[in-house]
C-alpha cells in the first residue's frame, strides 16, 4: 500500500547505455591474486609456492560454517601468498599465480546431467563447484538450497538494479542456453513448481530472446519488473512478484532467489565441470576514459582493468568496488576481482555540500526496508537507544537509497551505520 | 593519482533542497502573478503596483532580518541566507494578506515570522511553526486595523459567510449570496477580493499538481486535507439541509486550498512519515472546520496549521517504528482521528444556524426599501461617532436637493458597481445612495432612506436596515459635535449613513 507508506523504491538513472551496447573486451593479466577468504572465513591452502596449476585446479577451500572451494583462474606457477587490500577494505591473504597465458583447462569435478541427478546430489555438486551468489554478496549457493523447505517459487534475479552495471546483462546475452539450463537445475534443487525470471521492463531488446528460450518450459516465466532501485533486492523482488513480506528469509513465504549469473555459473559447472574462474566486469562511470565490460580471470587487479579501459579521466577519483549505490570506495586500485565481483565504478571526485535537513521525509518514503532513516539519524545524534530499537535500525541493508534521495545531500546511510556501530558497542 | 574515500552510496539524485525551493518559489510567483493580474485589471494599476509593493516589502524585511541575524552571529551571511530560503516565507506571507494591509504591518509580521518563527529555533529545518503562518497570525492579532484605507476592495466571501455563521438559510439564499462574488464558478477562477494568493482555486490546483508531480510537495497532504474537509463539511451541510454547494464553498473560500498546497506541505513543520503527514492533514481539516463553525474567527485554516504544527512532534512519536510493521497501527490511528473528527465536527455543527439572511435580496444594486428586514436581526449599536467627524473617505456628494430632500451619494465598502460609477482615481466604487429629508425650520431629520445599496450583503445591510435608519429620525442637527451610534460589524456602512447626513447638513447650511 503506497498511501500510508511511501513507494519504498525509486527509478534511478542507471547510465547503463555507457556499457550495454559495446562489445565485451578480453583481458589476460600476467599474474592473478586469488583472495583466500570468503566472508569472515579464511581458506586452507592446498598448493604451495612453485606448484604448477591449471585453469580449474582447486587451490584452497574454506571449511568454516560453509564449504567453499577455490580454483585457479589461470594456468601457470604459484608465486606464493601475499597480503593485499581486499574490496571489503581489509588486507587479506591472496594466492599469487603467474599466468602462462595458455589457459590449459583441467576440470576439477566431473560434469553432471542434472536431469538424472537427485536433488541432494545437485546440492552437493553446487557446494563442490564453489558456486557463490554472483549478485555481489558471495553467499554460497548450496546453503540456501540445503535448508530450503516448502519452496513454491524460484526467482531468478536478472534485474541488475545497481546503476552503471551491465555485467549480468552481458553474461546473459552471451549465455542464454546456460541461463535456461541453470534455471532448470536450480528449480529442481529448490523443489519449487514454478520459476520466474525477473528482468527490468526496460530491457526491451532482450526480453523476447529470453521468452523464446524459456518457451519450452511452461513452468518458467519471464517477468518484466519496473526499472526502479532496489528492484533486485530480495525483499523488494519477492514483494513485487508475490506481494508478500517476510521476516528473515524468503523461504518463509515459499520463495528462493538466485542471481542470473549464478544460474549461468552453475550451468557451466554442470555442463563442462568448470567452476567460476572468469567474470565479466563492468568498468564504468565518468572517471573512466572508455567505459566497457571486460572479461577477466578471477584475481585480476582493478588497476589492470582500469588501464584496459583507457585509464582514469581525472586525478582525484572515487574508485568503487561494485556499483555506486552499495559498492565501497577503495583507496587503492591494487585489489582484485573475486568470483562474486561484477563491477568497478569510477567517478571524478566532486564533493557535494550537505545543508540542513528539511525533514521532507523522502528517505522514509523510499526506504525499501520501510525504515525511517531521518528518525534513526536524529535518534543516533542524541544516542537515544530506546528509540533506535523502536525504529528497528538493524533492518537497514545500507542500500544507499536514503543518501541518494536526500535533497539536502546528507549522508543519511552513514548516519545509520553510525547508529549500528553505537548500538553494537553499547551491547558489548 | 588520488583515490578519495567516501562512505557509500556515491550517487545522488539530481533534486536538491535548492531546486525544490526554487520550484516552489516559481509556483508561488505564478499564484502571485495571477493576483497582480486581477488587481491590475479589476482595480487599476494603483492596486497592482501595491501588490508588488507588498511582496517587495516582505522580501526586504525577510532578507534584512536574516542578514542582521547572521551578521550578529558572526556567520557567512551570504552562505547562510542561501541555505535558509527567506524568500519563500516572505512570499507565502504576502500571499496570505489582503491588498489593503499596511506595508508597516506586513514588514513587522515578516520580521516576526523570520526571527521568532525560524531563526531563534536554530534556523531552517529547526522551526516548529510554519514561519509564514506565524507572521500572518501576528497581523491578525496585532495589526487588524493597520490597513491602507485607500485600497478598500470590499468584504471577502469568507468574511461575509463567516459573519453569517457559515450557514445559509436555503440554497437560493446561498446562490444569491455567492452571486455577489460572481457565483461558484468565479469562486473557482478567483476574480474576487480576498487574500492576495488565496482566491484562485484554479491557479492553486494547477500549481499544486505541478509541484506534486515534480515531487516538490507530497500529494498526500492536500489530497487528504481536501477529502477530509469535503467529507466533514458535506456532513455538516447535510445536517442543515444544505446542498453540495456547502462543502464546495468551504473548500473554495478562504485559505483552504492555498494552505493545503503551500503551507501544510511545508516539510519542516509537518511529520516526516507518510502516515504522519496523513494524520497531520486530517487534523488540519478537522480543526479548520471546527474553528470556522465555532470560533470567533473568520477563518480556520491558519490556526489549524499552527495547532497541528505544535502536534507534529507527537505525531512523529506516534508513527515511529519500521513503517511496514506499523501499517496496521497507523491505519487504526487514521481511523480513530477520522471518527473523532466526524464526531467533534458533528457536535460543533449542532449549534450552528444561519445568523441572518445572506443577501437574498440585497447587493444587486436594487433598492432595499421596504423589503429587506422581515427577519432583521437585533442591531448591535456601538462605536459612537461625532456628526462632524472626518468622513472624507466616503467622498459624500449631494446630488440633488428638492424640498428639503437631499439625495446623497457616498462610497460603498467596495463591491464593484455593476453600473460603473468611476471615481476620481479611476477606481470603481460601489455607491450607497441615501435620501435625507431635513426640516429646514427645526433642523430635525424627518426621514432617511437608502435607495441604492452598494455594500457587502450579509454584512453591510445591517447598516442600512430600517431599524438603524430610524434611530436618526427626529435627530436635531444643530449640534454637529453630538455623537451618534454606528452598527457593530457594519461600521463602514453605518458610517456612510452618518457621512450622508453630514453632507446633507452642510448642504442645508449653505
From TrEMBL, chain A:
[4Fe-4S] cluster 1 binds at residues 357, 360, 363, 406. GO terms for molecular function: 4 iron, 4 sulfur cluster binding; electron transfer activity; metal ion binding. Keywords: 4Fe-4S, Cell membrane, Electron transport, Iron, Iron-sulfur, Membrane, Metal-binding, Repeat, Translocase, Transport. Its EC number is 7.-.-.-. It comes from the Bacteria. PROSITE patterns: 4FE4S_FER_1, 4FE4S_FER_2. Binds 2 [4Fe-4S] clusters per subunit. It is an enzyme of class 7 (translocase). GO terms for biological process: electron transport chain. Its main location: membrane. Pfam families: Complex1_51K, Fer4_10, RnfC_N, SLBB. GO terms for cellular component: plasma membrane. Its cofactor is [4Fe-4S] cluster. [4Fe-4S] cluster 2 binds at residues 367, 396, 399, 402. InterPro entries: 4Fe4S_Fe-S-bd, 4Fe4S_Fe_S_CS, Ion_transpt_RnfC/RsxC, Nuo51_FMN-bd, Nuo51_FMN-bd_sf, RnfC_N, Soluble_ligand-bd. It is found in: Cell membrane. Gene3D superfamilies: 3.30.70.20, NADH-ubiquinone oxidoreductase 51kDa subunit. The keyword Transit peptide does not apply. The complex is composed of six subunits: RnfA, RnfB, RnfC, RnfD, RnfE and RnfG. Part of a membrane-bound complex that couples electron transfer with translocation of ions across the membrane. Belongs to the 4Fe4S bacterial-type ferredoxin family. RnfC subfamily. This is Ion-translocating oxidoreductase complex subunit C. The lineage of its organism: Bacteria, Bacillati, Bacillota, Erysipelotrichia, Erysipelotrichales.
From TrEMBL, chain B:
The chain crosses the membrane at residues 20-40, 52-72, 103-121, 133-152, 191-212, 219-238, 244-262, 274-295, 301-319, 331-352. GO terms for biological process: electron transport chain; transmembrane transport. One of its GO terms (cellular component) is plasma membrane. InterPro entries: FMN-bd, NqrB/RnfD, RnfD_bac. Keywords: Electron transport, Flavoprotein, FMN, Membrane, Phosphoprotein, Translocase, Transmembrane, Transmembrane helix, Transport. Residues 434-506 form the FMN-binding domain. It comes from the Bacteria. Residues 355-375 are annotated as: Disordered. Pfam families: FMN_bind (PF04205), NQR2_RnfD_RnfE (PF03116). Residues 357-375 have a biased composition (Low complexity). GO terms for molecular function: FMN binding. PANTHER family: ELECTRON TRANSPORT COMPLEX PROTEIN RNFD, ION-TRANSLOCATING OXIDOREDUCTASE COMPLEX SUBUNIT D. NCBIfam families: rnfD. This is FMN-binding domain-containing protein.
Amino acid at each position: 500500500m503506497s498511501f500510508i507508506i511511501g513507494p519504498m523504491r525509486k527509478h534511478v538513472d542507471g547510465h547503463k547505455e555507457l556499457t550495454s551496447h559495446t562489445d565485451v573486451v578480453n583481458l589476460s593479466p600476467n599474474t592473478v591474486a586469488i583472495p583466500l577468504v570468503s566472508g569472515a572465513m579464511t581458506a586452507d591452502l592446498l598448493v604451495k609456492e612453485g606448484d604448477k596449476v591449471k585453469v580449474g585446479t582447486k587451490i584452497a577451500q574454506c571449511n568454516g560454517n560453509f564449504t567453499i572451494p577455490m580454483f585457479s583462474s589461470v594456468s601457470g606457477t604459484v608465486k606464493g601468498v601475499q597480503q593485499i587490500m581486499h574490496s571489503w577494505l581489509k588486507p587479506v591473504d591472496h594466492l599469487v599465480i603467474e599466468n602462462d597465458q595458455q589457459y590449459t583447462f583441467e576440470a576439477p569435478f566431473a560434469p553432471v546431467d542434472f536431469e538424472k541427478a537427485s536433488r541432494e546430489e545437485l546440492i552437493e555438486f553446487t557446494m563442490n563447484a564453489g558456486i557463490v551468489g554472483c549478485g555481489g554478496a558471495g553467499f554460497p549457493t548450496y546453503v540456501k538450497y540445503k535448508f530450503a523447505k516448502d519452496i513454491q517459487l524460484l526467482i531468478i534475479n536478472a534485474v541488475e538494479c545497481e546503476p552503471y552495471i551491465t555485467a549480468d546483462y552481458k553474461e546473459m546475452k552471451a549465455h542464454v542456453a546456460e541461463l535456461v539450463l541453470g534455471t532448470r537445475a536450480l528449480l529442481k534443487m529448490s523443489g519449487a513448481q514454478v520459476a520466474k525470471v525477473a528482468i527490468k521492463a526496460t530491457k526491451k531488446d532482450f526480453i523476447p530472446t529470453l521468452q523464446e528460450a524459456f518457451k519450452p518450459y511452461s513452468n518458467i516465466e519471464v517477468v518484466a519488473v519496473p526499472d526502479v532501485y532496489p528492484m533486485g533486492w530480495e525483499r523488494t523482488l519477492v514483494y513485487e512478484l508475490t506481494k508478500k513480506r517476510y521476516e528473515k528469509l524468503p523461504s518463509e513465504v515459499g520463495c528462493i532467489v538466485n542471481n542470473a549469473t549464478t544460474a549461468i555459473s552453475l550451468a557451466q559447472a554442470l555442463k563442462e565441470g568448470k567452476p567460476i574462474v572468469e567474470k565479466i566486469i563492468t568498468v564504468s562511470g565518468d572517471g573512466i576514459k572508455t567505459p566497457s565490460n571486460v572479461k577477466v580471470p578471477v584475481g585480476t587487479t582493478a588497476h589492470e582493468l582500469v588501464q584496459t579501459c583507457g585509464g582514469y579521466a581525472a586525478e582525484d577519483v572515487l574508485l568503487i568496488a561494485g556499483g555506486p549505490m552499495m559498492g565501497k570506495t577503495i583507496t587503492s586500485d591494487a585489489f582484485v576481482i573475486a568470483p562474486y565481483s561484477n563491477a568497478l565504478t569510477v567517478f571524478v571526485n566532486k564533493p557535494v555540500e550537505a545543508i540542513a535537513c528539511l525533514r521532507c521525509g523522502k528517505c522514509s518514503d523510499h526506504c525499501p526496508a520501510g525504515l525511517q532513516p531521518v528518525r534513526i539519524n536524529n535518534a543516533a545524534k542524541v544516542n537515544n537507544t530506546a528509540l533506535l530499537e523502536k525504529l528497528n535500525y538493524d533492518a537497514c541493508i545500507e542500500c544507499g537509497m536514503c543518501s541518494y534521495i536526500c535533497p539536502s545531500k546528507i549522508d543519511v546511510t552513514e548516519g545509520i551505520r553510525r547508529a549500528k556501530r553505537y548500538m553494537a558497542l553499547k551491547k558489548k | 593519482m588520488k583515490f578519495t574515500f567516501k562512505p557509500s552510496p556515491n550517487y545522488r539524485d539530481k533534486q536538491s533542497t535548492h531546486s525544490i525551493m526554487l520550484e516552489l518559489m516559481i509556483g508561488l510567483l505564478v499564484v502571485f502573478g495571477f493576483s497582480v493580474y486581477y488587481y491590475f485589471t479589476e482595480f487599476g494599476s494603483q492596486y497592482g503596483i501595491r501588490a508588488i509593493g507588498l511582496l517587495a516589502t516582505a522580501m526586504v524585511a525577510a532578507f534584512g532580518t536574516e542578514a542582521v541575524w547572521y551578521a550578529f552571529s558572526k556567520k557567512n551571511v551570504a552562505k547562510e541566507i542561501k541555505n535558509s530560503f527567506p524568500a519563500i516565507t516572505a512570499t507565502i506571507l504576502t500571499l496570505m494578506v489582503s491588498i489593503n494591509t499596511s506595508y508597516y504591518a506586513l514588514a513587522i509580521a515578516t520580521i516576526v515570522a523570520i526571527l521568532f518563527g525560524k531563526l531563534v529555533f536554530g534556523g531552517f529545518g529547526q522551526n516548529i511553526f510554519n514561519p509564514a503562518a506565524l507572521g500572518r497570525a501576528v497581523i491578525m492579532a496585532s495589526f487588524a486595523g493597520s490597513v491602507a484605507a485607500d485600497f478598500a476592495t470590499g468584504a471577502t466571501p469568507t468574511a461575509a459567510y463567516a459573519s453569517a455563521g457559515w450557514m445559509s438559510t436555503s440554497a437560493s439564499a446561498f446562490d444569491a449570496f455567492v452571486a455577489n462574488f460572481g457565483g461558484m464558478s468565479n469562486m473557482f477562477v478567483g476574480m474576487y477580493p480576498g487574500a492576495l494568493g488565496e482566491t484562485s482555486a484554479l491557479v492553486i490546483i494547477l500549481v499544486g499538481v505541478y509541484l506534486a508531480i515534480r515531487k516538490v510537495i507530497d500529494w498526500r497532504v492536500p489530497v487528504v486535507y481536501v477529502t477530509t474537509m469535503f467529507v466533514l463539511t458535506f456532513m455538516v451541510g447535510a445536517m442543515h439541509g444544505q446542498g453540495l454547494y456547502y462543502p464546495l464553498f468551504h473548500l473554495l473560500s478562504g485559505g483552504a486550498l492555498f494552505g493545503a498546497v503551500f503551507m501544510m506541505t511545508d516539510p519542516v513543520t509537518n511529520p516526516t512519515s507518510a502516515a504522519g503527514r496523513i494524520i497531520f492533514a486530517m487534523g488540519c481539516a478537522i480543526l479548520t472546520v471546527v474553528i470556522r463553525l465555532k470560533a470567533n474567527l473568520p477563518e480556520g485554516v491558519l490556526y489549524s496549521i499552527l495547532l497541528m504544527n505544535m502536534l507534529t512532534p507527537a505525531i512523529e512519536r506516534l508513527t515511529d517504528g519500521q513503517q511496514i510493521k506499523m501499517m496496521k497501527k497507523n491505519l487504526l490511528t487514521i481511523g480513530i482521528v477520522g471518527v473523532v473528527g466526524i464526531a467533534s465536527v458533528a457536535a460543533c455543527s449542532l449549534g450552528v444556524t444561519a445568523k441572518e439572511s445572506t443577501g437574498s435580496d440585497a447587493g444587486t444594486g436594487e433598492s432595499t426599501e421596504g423589503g429587506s428586514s422581515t427577519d432583521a436581526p437585533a442591531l448591535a449599536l456601538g462605536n459612537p461617532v461625532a456628526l462632524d467627524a472626518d468622513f472624507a473617505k466616503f467622498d459624500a456628494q449631494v446630488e440633488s436637493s428638492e424640498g428639503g430632500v437631499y439625495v446623497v451619494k457616498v462610497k460603498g465598502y467596495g463591491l464593484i458597481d455593476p453600473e460603473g460609477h468611476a471615481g476620481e482615481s479611476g477606481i470603481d466604487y460601489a455607491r450607497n445612495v441615501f435620501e435625507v429629508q431635513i426640516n429646514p425650520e427645526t433642523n430635525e431629520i424627518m426621514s432617511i432612506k437608502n435607495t441604492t445599496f452598494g455594500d457587502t450583503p450579509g454584512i453591510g445591510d445591517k447598516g442600512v436596515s430600517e431599524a438603524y435608519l430610524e434611530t436618526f429620525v427626529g435627530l436635531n442637527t444643530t449640534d454637529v459635535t453630538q455623537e451618534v451610534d454606528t452598527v457593530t460589524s457594519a461600521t463602514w456602512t453605518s458610517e456612510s449613513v452618518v457621512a450622508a447626513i453630514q453632507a446633507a447638513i452642510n448642504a442645508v447650511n449653505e
